[in-house]
## 1
Amino acid sequence: RSPYELAYTNWSNETRGGVRVAEDRDIQELTAIAASAPIGDKRSLARLRVVLHDADLAGYDLDGARQVLAGDTLEIRRETAKAMSASYTLPADSAQFGATVLAEPLVQSDDPGIQELAARIVGGEVNPRKVAQRINRWVFDSLEKKISFSIPNAVQVLRARTGDCNEHTQLFVALARAAGLPARSVAGLANVGGKFYYHAWPEVYLGDWVATDPTFGQFPADAAHLRFVIGGFKRQAELLKLIGALRIEVVK
């Protein structure tokens, strides 16, 4: 099994008080990054500070929104309810938000099936935060958590109702945009069971960009999500440069 599948299983077992599954050490050594210290209960973690060692950080989207990069020290602050107060109602103005409310080849927010489902989930709500929460919950509840080796598009994901973080993210972004909610894909590292795994999740605009995780059912996403790139699969390929190079020191 892949590191992501093991990571999700371990996260699920930790959340429900189960027993962690055995890990494939060979695969994990290639892809996972050990934390220098335990992070603890991420659900109550409001802030995380880490030092990123031994990797060239140039060109990555580490600074902005809830992340602040100073030298090689990265601080992540989980968004508060007060911070998630958008000043607009849905649908958002495409002239203001541009591509983050428009369809893309793999994010078919203009597909009739996607639009119909988005309308059912939203149910007439125009508050961006409430709509983001509803879509996040629906995707988390409706998709089977299973590793995938394809490049997903939102329509295929809606039909299959299964996949990993990429499928969850693609469908979330498509549904959000269909509802007129600015949304984008990001990728980086998420901490599970003491290690950082490569992971993808969405961000929605609620006065600033807010991280959410429909794969783990988190709104907002916990502070142990380290965003490295903004964008789809072409940007995610840049994460490969970190394998075997990046070392993470947890400062808290």
## 2
Amino acid sequence: MNFICTTYVVDSRPSYRYRVMGNRYTPRLSGDSVHSRMGNDNTLTLIFLHAAGMFKECFEPTIDIFFSGYSSDVRKSPSIGEIWSIECPNHGQSAVLNADDISVYSPDTWQIHEYADAVYAYLQGRPGGYDLSKRDLVLVGHSMGGFVIPFLIQMEPKLKFNTIVLADPVISPRCRMMERIKKVCIQAALSRKDNWTSCAEAREYLDINKVLKIWTSGMKDLFIKHAIVPFKDSRPPHLEEMVTLACSKKHEISIYTTSADDDIAHVKLASLYASKTPVHLLYERTPHPLIGTVQAVLHQCHGFKPTSAQSIRSGHMFFQMDPDEAATLILNALRFKKNHEEVHSVARL
């Protein structure tokens, strides 16, 4: 691996009710080299936010590609000094850490907006003593992580971001089509297996499931390591190695429901597009037909457009299927230079 990873927990209870975990990734260089890069005014700090059902380590294959360039010619790419990946409190290792609090505050349901609150608490909480408010921040949100960004950027006191990358979120006004999308997502979650007799059986399931088997082998290994936890309920001795998903089906379904029922995210998205912050959209080239019917809202939202838009060849879960494409798309967004002579005729909110 071309990176060093350190995990930090921000505990701001009771002002925020859950502990928030995040990983800090730095290139595998000498301490002096890293310190020198972080002192450079042009150095960026990337903040990754994951999709529903994922975990903070799911970006590691892409992060490894970013930092592999540090051993060659870094002049061709934006200078990335560090990358943080912040975990939703009911996902991955965070679900274990917060199990007691979740059982009190939200045992059966989970609002998608909770992730925005968690990220804000983390960025404000000086994880590991690092004052991220002084960094040149780039937000990269995938799916659920992208959905919460329009909420996150409006929280007070506001955080300043250099650039935002929305990686294939589904953001739309409430409509009949969103109801159909919600039903499809819920049915998909219900149909997936979520308990296994062992991690080995869970790994075999990833290899045969028609949706998951196309992930890279490395991503499947990361999923088993970070998204699978010991089964909580009592079980017979011969099933003592039984495991389950860190993010429960109830919570996953609740996330899909609250996002589909939300009717203000698209208004906040328009405000984001209208701001001075560059916003780059990554969208699936050949989406599910239902998703395709609402995708236009991402490209033209109340008269406002993203700074740039790139299509994703490998599909919605492109971080899991093709980390090389993910790295390329994000670097393209960071390299983007808007033609200041181009004038977009847009409405005013």
## 3
Amino acid sequence: MKYIVIVGDGMADYPVEKHGGKTPLETANKPNIDMLAKLGRLGIIKTVPDGMPPDSGVANLSILGYDPVLYFTGRGPLEAGAFNVPVGDNDIIFRCNLVTVKDGILVDYSAGHVTNEEARELLNAVSQLGVGEYFVGVSYRHIFLLKNQEINVGCSPPHSITGQPIKEHMIGPDGGEIGKKLNELMLKSYEILSKHPINLRREREGKNPANMIWLWGPGKKPKLEPFEQKYGLKGGVISGIILIKGIGNYAKMRVIEVPGATGYYDTNYEGKADYALKALEEGLDLIYIHVEAPDEAGHAGDFDQKVRTIEDLDKRLLGRILNRVDMENVKIMLLPDHPTPIERRMHMPDPVPVVVYSPKKKGDGLRFSETEARKGSLGFIYGPDLMRLFISRL
């Protein structure tokens, strides 16, 4: 038996009145997902434990069966795993966004989706300040490392404070002297990057400048039990973002690089499908395919774009997989990790819908949506239990 897990990041939503009281999932033309829902069984999954932030790191750990209450040490440490850099037990790792700030307001958490090459030059300029180490990721998503320091607070997640004053969301008094030093670093980065030729050019071109670094999600490196040891299956991950690659590395899963996997609307859906199937043919037992695009549309507050990302996932990823797999020898699970509602433009901790297809198991005959999933035969499942149940019982 082979196992395929497809995660549409932030794909769940709330009904939007001006779109007929429907969610993007209910609006999208998604025949392949709905066929899976008809043949499979639906349920509701609580991926974010009570009292924890609705972070994608929390939710994806949960889906993979690593209880975030035990294993989540911060967003930064999980993403650092993507770089395989030597991190000491006393080092603190932050997620480092390049953001756009104007008149003291954070106006864009993604800095207009700055390119990798631009980001590398900009972070190199900030590194001249001599504080910490930078590791360049994808677009606006990077890592900042502090050696042998103690601090457990960072700034607010930038995608949750768009349109708000930065000084209300920087590191507070709990951060002590290190927090003050990092706040100074971020403010100095604004002075440097606002004048950088790359940003001056971006502004001339009508693009948002990447004119400040934003440090958030700090913590120490986690220790995950290897996936194969935990489940007896060889697993792999495919994603355009460093968070999922980092989790995959910590769990000793194969991290599969797909050309053109951008973590954005233009990601290579077909490539993700092809590389996933190839990995299963070459000996992997389970593949975890993560798609970031719906989350980006949710943060942008763009209903139509979110619908398009769901339709792309349906046609260009899932449809391509369904056309080539032996449905008698595969189990498929599809779900969001958390909601990123259009009207909130931020992650929410609500439970999410899930569909599980298993050969010879009677399907629920439903469509896939937030509402329909509550009618499903799987009922309510606690997130960290999901992977074990998917593999062994569902």
## 4
Amino acid sequence: MAGIEVLVGLTSALAALGAAELAVHRRRLRSIPIRVHVNGTRGKSSVTRLIAAGLREGGIRTCAKTTGTLARMILPDGTELPIYRPTGPNIIEQRRIVALAAAHDADALVIECMALQPQLQSLCELELIQSTHGVVTNARPDHLEVMGPKPRDVARALAGTTPVRGKLFLAAEEHRDVFEHAARDRRSEIVVTEPCDEASALVGFSYTEHPSNVGVALAVCEELGVARDTALEGMWKAKPDPGAMTERQVEFFGRPITFINGFAANDPVSTRQ
């Protein structure tokens, strides 16, 4: 009987501790008025960096977190910190990121979705981030063993990060009806963005940035009150993600060789592009 009482006591204590942690996390979320959750098959890290840089340039105190080639926390002054993962990647680390952003008095947090499992993508949005603005860069056939088996299933999984009563910025051309359904279900507005094809805008980057990434990032910044030219200035200054596509010219025994770093494009559609 005593053992049962101890077990009940421990269970109650753990439940109380969990409730207290949840309350603290939600209070921290409320202290950050702008929360942008970036999802998609490719380009999440780059778009996260672009939006954060544009908001910083516009005077909005912004933290950001990427999960791509190298996970990084980006502070309001642009300083980057590596993400320490003693037990490997885990979506619970998003709570630490929210806590750090709140500790830096951030007015905005731009955060890349790190979940693959469809249920966890939705959990990240509904419990961990509760975004005011969502972004989907694209919905391509990748990680089909987790999000598939069909490409349309990938879109359904990505739609799990649609905000509740917020705005979803959609650069994805694929399966738009899936995202429209998710937006209706969560009472959010969809903003379909167009690629930024202006040469004058793209020439300012020190690396190859995709027009669709720039287009959706500019749309988010303008929605949040940052002028287009101001946001672009910030984006040009931003440090590229380690996985961003770069091009290098080298001489090899008198022969010019072009090396293109496209290793982050690891799905068939992105590789062809």
